Amino acid sequence: MSEKFTPGPWKVINRHGVTRVVNESGKPEVADIIGNFEPNAHLIAAAPEMYAALKRVTAWLDSIADDAEKQAKDSRFITLKEACEKDAKNFSATSNDLKKALAKADKDGSV
After folding, report:
1. Separation between Cα atoms, residue 77 and residue 65, nearest integer Å
2. First and final CA of the chain: distance in angstroms?
3. Do 41 and 86 lie in a common domain?
4. Whether 98 and 54 share a structural domain
5. pLDDT per residue over 13-64, tens digit each?
6. How many domains does the chain contain in total?
7. Could you tell me the residue range of the domain that residue 1 belongs to?
8. Which of 36, 49, 61, 99 counts the most CB atoms within 10 A of its CB?
């Protein structure tokens, strides 16, 4: 994440009856959640991972668009096998990142 954000990863802790979102060292605190809103705390805690994964998705999509534009102009095309292998790796890695962030937000780990 950018320097304008508290560096992640973040986690949820319960301290003195207050649900808190903190960085991995336990401070500085990112947010105090007052009331019975622990699911929101887990969603907030997943924000750094989701932000990073979404940045990766947008960069990857931009790359695909750039590649397609270049291929349209260039007579030398990559093979279908190479294109599929590249796409498969990107799809898999991006999907895994998003699943980890979503599982953290869901708390129970189900996606």
Report:
1. 15
2. 23
3. no
4. yes
5. 988 888 999 998 887 778 988 888 888 899 999 999 988 898 888 888 888 8
6. 2
7. 1-45
8. 49
